[in-house]
Amino acid sequence: MIVRAAGGLVVRETGGRRQLAVVHRPRHDDWSLPKGKLSEGEGWSEAALREVEEETGLRCELGPELGRSRYRVGKGRLKYVRWWLMHPLGGEFAPGDEVDELRWLAPAEALELLSHEHDRELVRTALGSNKDPR
After folding, report:
1. 3-state class of 75 per DSSP?
2. DSSP letter string over 89-123?
3. 2-127 has which CATH code?
4. What is the pLDDT of residues 59-114, one digit of tens each?
5. Residue 104 CB neighbour total at 10 angstroms
6. Which helix (H) or strand (E) covers residue 58, if one does?
7. What single DSSP character describes residue 16?
């Protein structure tokens, strides 16, 4: 069985500096980019926007699709994630059972904190060069 998920690289500009939203998931005790499984009948980009809002409290504007990740999760299942660039339009983070902390970090700080290589690779690919992903 393949687990289908979608998520966002949520980017904001503060004081002329780019920051990324990174979330802590207490169930896994890890730091990751916001994402989640598609609901029945839901489209990929719809799921990405919904999951980012559920995990971060932020309503976001959808930007370009950034790429895809594939990796193994519990019981050897394959997880397939599609990612979009997102910019927050409003909302506010509130800790919950699924995500208990959100940090806004510079890309280099996010690379140090993220627990999974597939998340770090997405950040490096999307923001690692001088290109502006807007």
Report:
1. helix
2. EEE-----SS--EEEEE-HHHHHHH---HHHHHHH
3. 3.90.79.10
4. 999 999 999 999 888 888 999 999 999 999 999 999 999 999 999 999 999 999 99
5. 18
6. strand 58-72
7. T
